[in-house]
User: Fold this.
Amino acid sequence: MTESNSKSLVSKFKALLSSPFATMWLVVAMYAVKAVLKIGLGHEINSPMITGDGFHNFADILEALAVLLVIWVSRRPTSDDYPFGKKNIEFFTSLAIGSALLVMSFNFALQSLVGIISYFPAFDSAFRHFLPLPIYHPLVMGSGTFGSVFALTLGSVLLSFAVSRHQIKVGKKSGHASLVADGEETASDGRIELITLLGVLGEYFFHAPWLEYPLGLLVAAVIARTGWELFMGGFQVLLQHSIGAAHENEMKRRCLATVGVDDLGSFKTFQIGSTAVCMLTVITEHNTSTIAQIKYGLEHVLKSYLLEAGFKDCELHLKFQKPEPQRHRVAFGVIARDNHLVIAATIDQSSHIIICDVEHGDIVRSKQEPKPANLSEFLKQKRVTQFYLFQAQAGSQAGVQSVPATSFQPSILGLNNKTK
Amino acid sequence: MVKITCAFRRTIEGRLAISFGADLLKLLSEGPNDSLYIFLNQGSSEAAEISSDSLSTAQILTEQYNRVLAEVAQQTGLPSSKIILTDQDNDGILIDHASAFERADLDVLYPSREKSLLARGSGPLLVPFGDSLSALPAANIAIMLAKKLALPVVFYHTTWIDESQPSTKAEDHMCNGARQVAALLKATADVAAVQYNFVVETADDVAEGILQCSLRQSVRLIVMPRSAKTTIGCYVNQALAKTPVPLLAVASKSGRPL
Assistant:
């Protein structure tokens, strides 16, 4: 075999190992070997603990097969009925495995407590009067079986941690939450097996099998924490909880640092599978052609952040909205002659009145009318709030604020030449 | 220090331009004597039209001067002594939205409705370049600003694809003229000891390529040269029409030294 052929075989094997399906079949194989060996050895040495652990591994095989099915379903393409695909099915697995780990940690903690109080018979019988505690099974092991029990337990521990690490790595890389959850469950199995190993060693070397019980309580707490995280992770995604205040605050900060963004209206996020969905309303005074660029900038900023934060993909729904226009009307007294305008100094000088609609602080529409006989009534009718002249006199128009114009030049005041 | 002039307009864009100018003055200021120039066409003939026996043309002009000065001072927070009203807009940098589209003979900074250069945080300045030397005056202004503001510069070039070139790297498709300009820009930035980098790509649309690169890199100001040779489809005008990033359009005959 040439060197290039062997390299190609190695890379093919690596590619196979990084596949979620191949990883889960590896997990099935691991549990099958563990279940057969543990049930066999447990029967051989009459150890209910090892036999029970073997049956637990048999149940793990069924769980791994369920995860395989979930991964297959989650990879189904999107359809009209399922526009986001079926990625969220993975989080049912997180919910189920999280719940199972919580139950497992409770049982393990209970067994460890029972083990501890068995060393204090007076307490043991006192507790059992009012608590239905499980029966205590001491570790039964002869010196002739130590080697095989030790090898099996140590092998199980190492295998569990190695496979768990691989599962979590592949799960995170491929974006399969169910694979990550199952990997966490495998790691928890490994921790329990490690405690069993410590018990075996404690009894063999120090005749102190009690060592495993306080450590067991510690491991139960670790498993409970993992179970709670998985449960809440699944719960939050399935109920479309936001992707978290810390993420949202950082995303808002980055949006506001993007040119053209005046403010943010609604801002909603949630997660579908490993895809983050973000729906936001951007407040901007820019026009349509500029908004296209702002949208590009925001999409770039948000996508970069979400991918950095560990999401596999993101869907962004951006809506653009102008700020409140704060519409009102103002009027100018002007001298209009031969298409030429100048702001009048006084009412007497004015030949015309220009009524202006103001939005966002700018004049968006204006209409020129000959100066009416009753100016105050006219301005009131037109709902004018401010009346400008170059030399305005306060209170000259009842009900309307008279304001001196900064300049007498219409173009400076936003009244361009189109105003006729 | 470069002279900063803002056109006085009593509109939202006019107010934003003045805020932008005042902020830029604070950023670039070298001493207590630096002033903000406000371009105001006096309008003497219009003043004469509304003058009367009780209000002379001179009084009207003085009144307008005082009102504009007070308004700018109130808006910017600058003391009146640091604001100079002028009827000259043809030297230094003019900050104005409308003039950017109308005055190819001036260096006009279009603030694109931003209140200030660095209010959204620090970011680089971007100088697009082609195969002509017109980029050099713009680059000089950008490098001068970058040095004073301690900001990096991005030199941006987008090139047509050379079909005879099998490489997929955009740099390999650059023509010799653009390579020479790039070398000059690099040398200028090195001399000024300004941090810089080059972005070369094969964008479908030049103006969009410039704007999208600016948005990807959080650019705070695009400094873009006008070309005296372009007759139709000026890239500066195309970019101005849709930029959310402030853009300094440098006149083709900018008086700045190379």
